[in-house]
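User: Hey, quick favor. My workstation is busy. Could you predict this chain's structure for me?
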Amino acid sequence: MRKLIDTIKNIWNIEDLRNRILMTLGILAIYRLGCFVVIPGVDPAQLSALQDQTSDGLLGLLNMFTGGAFSQASIFALGIMPYISASIVIQLLGMAIPYFQKLQKEGESGRRKINNITRYLTILITGGQAPGYIANLKATLPESAFLLAPGAFWMSSIIILVTGTMFVMWLGEKITDRGVGNGISLLIMIGIIAGLPQSLMQEFVAALGSTGGGLVMFMVEMLALLVVIMVTILLVQGTRRIPVQYAKRVVGNKQYGGVRQFIPLKVNAAGVMPIIFAQAIMFVPITLVGFSDNESLQGIAAVLTDFGGFWYNLMFFVMIVLFTYFYTAMTVNPNQMADDMKKNGGFIPGIK
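Assistant: No problem, here it is.
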């Protein structure tokens, strides 16, 4: 414990790191405040029906990813998910279209172009999801909850939702550039953590109920949760180190190489991204149903959005497997690694 306290003190004494932490905390605070700003033209006092609809199931999961903004009819209701969807499309195109493959090999300039294309695609995706969200609001809330004329409400709400998503994306990029990094992941994490106290309290109250199993069962659940977290950390941190030997080279009067290094191959190279990608795809039926009153489409969407149903979990499983395969293929390129080693005079001992 003493060592942990000393480490925290040392981190705080480094000015650049301290400024980055404060910048990150400030941006996260702005994001959380925005999650409670209701779309103009909606009566906040009549949001109970929407909150009941998003209390569980797939909509409940979406609400968790947005930190409760979805159920609050917030200006950040769509959150960062459209940006993640755009990133999925761009990364898949990078495997199939030569133009995007060329951009990926152009270094920093190519990365900037890909980021710009991703932003434009985010606007298009948000522009498609925003009407679906507004249609869901119209179908869920009573007519008295809307304080503007229908045309004005639709137009202003779509613009606000698109702007809100782009602002959230900008906040994530600022955390990545001027904060502690991984801005998009931090925004998702803070949204999940925001609902954690309420979820734990609900679970505690349910455990103490007549059919909940009592305090002992609650403690067992918390212990199981802790074990799952520990196993997850082990999987994320686990690596296999491949030894690489570099041949000795003489440049001028100096000798280089001759040392053994390692290539760290992660057990889970894809990380959590395939799950996020798959979840983003599972939100598509909700958006499509928002544009149609067809009972057949609504029935299909109900099956595909049943959080505990067989078909939902089967599709979710298949997409996680596929995205893990594709994402690992993109992040771990053995041919590129072999070429880099060959150029630098490296080889794996015992492997020809």
